[in-house]
């Protein structure tokens, strides 16, 4: 994000946590939630951030809005992965196991194979995601649609405002399509399940083929070992036969024809 001619540092995870907490707090404000405009909403989020942040970085209202959109997109995608893992309902699976599996799925589905690095944000927003799934079946009662207000913000402002509006009314066809495009909805989750099932089947086949190659290699090694044992055994038998032959020849030697030294050697054997 630019401020003047300088570019500020990337957001720290502690800043991300404050942004998520601020978004939740301002969204659920029972007094102003239904009446605040878009600019008022983000102005309050920015004020919350400035009050609660633990860093010295200077962030504009626009930069916080942009960062929230990035966080929301990634957390929504991870929530879909986590929900897909939960639906498998494997016995003995801990929450940490599910997080690990969901993280693997997230990376597999990411076009750039990037890992999910916003677990602290997910911990803050996950309950909101669950309640949002429940609200999709009923009319929203928490925050009504903000009234129209003239604004100079372009597409990014409209996109940010949609995050407030999705909490205020039943999901329509256009919204449902948008949800599917962004990775939400049952159809998307079913697609995730199918993709992950195919990957697991492929991994199992790879592992099976690897094991078969190993077993084949092991059989070759065993056969080679048996051949080596036979060779050594044959060598030993050959040496033993040679020794017996020498002993037999010595026994048949006429001792009278030997000189005293050779005679003494034979008698010592």
Automatic annotation (TrEMBL):
<feature type="coiled-coil region">
    <location>
        <begin position="215"/>
        <end position="254"/>
    </location>
</feature>
<feature type="region of interest" description="Disordered">
    <location>
        <begin position="130"/>
        <end position="155"/>
    </location>
</feature>
<protein>
    <recommendedName>
        <fullName>No apical meristem-associated C-terminal domain-containing protein</fullName>
    </recommendedName>
</protein>
<feature type="domain" description="No apical meristem-associated C-terminal">
    <location>
        <begin position="114"/>
        <end position="268"/>
    </location>
</feature>
<dbReference type="Pfam" id="PF14303">
    <property type="entry name" value="NAM-associated"/>
</dbReference>
<dbReference type="InterPro" id="IPR029466">
    <property type="entry name" value="NAM-associated_C"/>
</dbReference>
<keyword id="KW-0175">Coiled coil</keyword>
<feature type="compositionally biased region" description="Basic and acidic residues">
    <location>
        <begin position="139"/>
        <end position="150"/>
    </location>
</feature>
């Amino acid at each position: 994000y630019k401020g003047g001619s300088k570019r500020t540092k990337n957001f720290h995870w502690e800043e991300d946590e404050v942004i998520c907490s601020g978004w939740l707090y301002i969204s659920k404000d029972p007094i102003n939630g239904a009446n605040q405009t878009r600019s008022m909403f983000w102005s309050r989020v920015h004020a919350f951030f400035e009050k609660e942040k633990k860093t010295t970085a200077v962030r504009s209202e626009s930069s916080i809005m942009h960062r929230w959109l990035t966080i929301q997109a990634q957390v929504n995608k991870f929530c879909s992965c986590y929900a897909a893992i939960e639906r498998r309902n494997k016995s003995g699976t801990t929450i940490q196991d599910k997080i690990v599996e969901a993280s693997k799925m997230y990376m597999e589905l990411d076009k750039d194979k990037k890992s999910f690095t916003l677990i602290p944000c997910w911990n803050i927003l996950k309950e909101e995601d669950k309640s949002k799934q429940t609200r999709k079946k009923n009319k929203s009662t928490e925050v009504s649609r903000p009234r129209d207000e003239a604004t100079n913000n372009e597409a990014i402002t409209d996109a940010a405002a949609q995050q407030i509006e999705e909490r205020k009314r039943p999901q329509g066809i256009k919204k449902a399509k948008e949800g599917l495009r962004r990775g939400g909805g049952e159809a998307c989750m079913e697609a995730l399940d199918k993709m992950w099932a195919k990957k697991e089947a492929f991994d199992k086949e790879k592992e099976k083929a690897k094991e078969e190659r190993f077993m084949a290699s092991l059989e070759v090694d065993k056969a080679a070992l048996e051949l080596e044992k036979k060779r050594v055994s044959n060598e030993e038998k050959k040496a033993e036969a040679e020794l017996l032959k020498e002993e037999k020849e010595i026994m048949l030697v006429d001792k009278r024809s030997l000189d005293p030294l050779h005679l003494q050697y034979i008698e010592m054997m």
